[in-house]
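Reminder to self: tokens first, then the designed residues, so the page reads top to bottom the way the pipeline ran.
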């Protein structure tokens, strides 16, 4: 297997080179600062938005892809910009739905060891070197998360958002999981194992909503995040560039009070 290219994230987190950080890390702070400035500048006038997550491996001819397109379109028609990771699969689907509905389609890409460019349905794109800068943008400029079936990257975004809500770092931030068949095992485990062991509190049970359809997902996230611009499509900013959960029911989730947030 060929060796993967080294990324700035890897360089920042790699502590194997003794002493080198004394000379490189202080200067790296300037690059990190510039990424925050670039992201803030690009998204400052975005308006109300929802971040949509899901697997980059979702096939274009799959039902999950069609679901992502429908969700992106529904959010755009409700007046919300759609933010994704800008990649293929479920991210592309949500961007496509938003674009086809005439809404604002945002892609926040990340530099990876393998080649990955922003998908063709991104209207406003920013590519980041550092995951933590990109993750800040997902939360800062969104009013909620819609989460399609995905893998480790999707889980990462999901549980970070749950931690931020549970610890009060963000407020009025709905998190909607789409696909009961996919998510019911996780929600079941949280209820029957994590809650039963006392690792989260009963009050955390409102942090997740599980639905099946695009219509349910859009309605659930807007119920708490609220529609933008009285149902008008969000305008483009000036930049170029566990089992049995019902539609409105929630599953218990989130780190317990004794656990720390980011």
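Designed residues (262 positions):
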């Amino acid at each position: 297997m060929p060796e993967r290219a080294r990324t700035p994230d890897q360089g920042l987190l790699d502590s194997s080179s003794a002493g080198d950080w004394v000379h490189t890390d202080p200067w790296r702070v300037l690059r990190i600062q510039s990424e925050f400035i670039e992201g803030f500048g690009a998204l400052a006038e975005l308006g109300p938005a929802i971040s949509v997550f899901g697997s980059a491996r979702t096939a274009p001819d799959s039902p999950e892809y069609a679901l992502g397109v429908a969700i992106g379109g529904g959010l755009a028609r409700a007046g919300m910009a759609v933010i994704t990771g800008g990649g293929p699969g479920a991210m592309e689907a949500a961007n496509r739905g938003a674009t086809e509905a005439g809404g604002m389609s945002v892609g926040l890409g990340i530099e990876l060891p393998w080649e990955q460019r922003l998908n063709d349905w991104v209207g406003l794109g920013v590519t980041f070197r550092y995951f933590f800068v990109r993750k800040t943008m997902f939360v800062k400029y969104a009013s909620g998360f819609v989460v399609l079936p995905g893998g480790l990257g999707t889980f990462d975004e999901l549980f970070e958002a749950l931690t931020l809500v549970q610890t009060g770092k963000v407020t009025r931030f709905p998190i909607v999981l789409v696909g009961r068949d996919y998510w019911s095992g996780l929600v079941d485990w949280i209820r029957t194992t994590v809650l039963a062991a006392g690792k989260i509190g009963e009050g955390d049970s409102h942090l997740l909503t599980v639905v099946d359809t695009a219509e349910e997902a859009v309605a659930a996230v807007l119920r708490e995040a609220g529609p933008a611009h009285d149902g008008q499509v969000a305008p483009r900013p000036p930049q170029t560039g566990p089992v049995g959960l019902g539609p409105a029911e929630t599953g218990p989730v989130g780190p317990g009070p004794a656990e720390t947030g980011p």
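Residues 24-233 form a domain with the Rossmann fold fold (CATH 3.40.50.450).
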